[in-house]
UniProtKB/TrEMBL annotation:
Primary location: cytoplasm
Name assigned to this protein: glutathione transferase
Family indicated by similarity: Belongs to the GST superfamily. Theta family.
Stored SUPFAM superfamilies: GST C-terminal domain-like (SSF47616), Thioredoxin-like (SSF52833)
Taxonomic superkingdom: Eukaryota
Record-annotated GST C-terminal domain positions: 88-224
Lineage per the UniProt record: Eukaryota, Metazoa, Chordata, Craniata, Vertebrata
Reactions catalysed, as given in the entry: RX + glutathione = an S-substituted glutathione + a halide anion + H(+)
Keyword Heme: no
Organism the protein comes from: Cyprinodon variegatus (Sheepshead minnow)
Subunit text: Homodimer.
Domain GST N-terminal: 1-82
């Protein structure tokens, strides 16, 4: 049985897993789980990942949740080039440092900005109050500043001269607010140059393909049936509003 990856490319961690697997020619079956249609709440997906989040992996009888362990599993199983997750202790520690930091920083604030700009106004029937937007933007900018000043500094990539899992995990989160129409690269030449390097390293075609859904999100979400929003409205408002 082919290795299966359960993905929805609107999701940031799914995009990193997808790009990693494709870039490294890892054979897999793409199992689409539409979050918008609540497919992750179905019985079938529950058997793969009881956390009910994507991405998820099934390799024979072995199921795995969480994008970072999934990519590390793929890296180890398929012996991908060392630069993705270097064996050198300090080098790997630098990558791990970013991978740990990002969950409660750029991931949280980039996602929040996406929901506040795109769907929360539809859920609450009005624009998000300015103070809330300003606060969210400040948090997001603080995380972007840290990516530039702490994690990149004057390096080409987060881990040094070559791309790694850290850049992959970073770029997908940085692109999420872009999908909601916020150009986070505006006025940030260092971040923009890094984005370009990551795009070229991944391959422009693959990068653009993986980002097609998220960059079309404004149009797609604009057409969404309001009934669909009811599926996740309580959770999203509790989490991001
Ligand atoms: N820490 C997890 C995060 C997974 C996650 O939050 N996935 C979101 C999409 S970005 C999801 O499936 N959400 C569905 C839900 O919460 O109902 C990872 O890195 O894989």
């Amino acid at each position: 049985m082919a290795l299966e990856l359960y993905l929805d490319l609107f999701s940031q961690p799914c995009r990193s897993v997808y790009m990693f697997a494709k870039k490294n020619n890892i054979p897999f079956e793409f199992k689409k789980v539409s979050l918008m249609h609540g497919e992750h709440f179905g019985d079938q997906f529950g058997k793969i990942n009881m956390i009910r989040k994507v991405p998820a992996l099934r390799d024979g009888d072995f199921c795995l949740a969480e994008s970072i362990p999934i990519m590390i599993y793929l890296a180890e199983k398929f012996q991908t080039p060392d630069f993705w997750y270097p064996t050198d202790i300090h080098h790997r520690a630098r990558i791990n440092e970013y991978l740990s930091w990002q969950h409660t920083a750029i991931r949280m604030y980039g996602s929040k900005m996406f929901w506040l700009r795109l769907l929360i106004p539809k859920m609450i029937g009005m624009e998000v109050p300015k103070e809330k937007m300003d606060g969210a933007l400040e948090d997001l900018n603080n995380s972007l500043n840290l990516i530039e000043e702490k994690f990149l500094q004057d390096r080409l990539f987060i881990g040094g001269d070559q791309i790694s899992l850290a850049d992959l995990v970073a770029i997908v989160e940085v692109m999420q607010p872009v999908g909601a129409g916020l150009d986070v690269f505006n006025g940030r030449p260092k971040l923009s140059a890094w984005r370009d390097r990551v795009r070229v390293s991944i391959g422009t075609e693959l990068f653009d393909e993986a980002n097609r859904d998220i960059l079309g999100a404004q149009e797609i979400m604009g057409q969404i049936d309001p009934g669909t929003l009811e599926l996740f409205k309580p959770k999203i408002l509790r989490f991001y509003y």
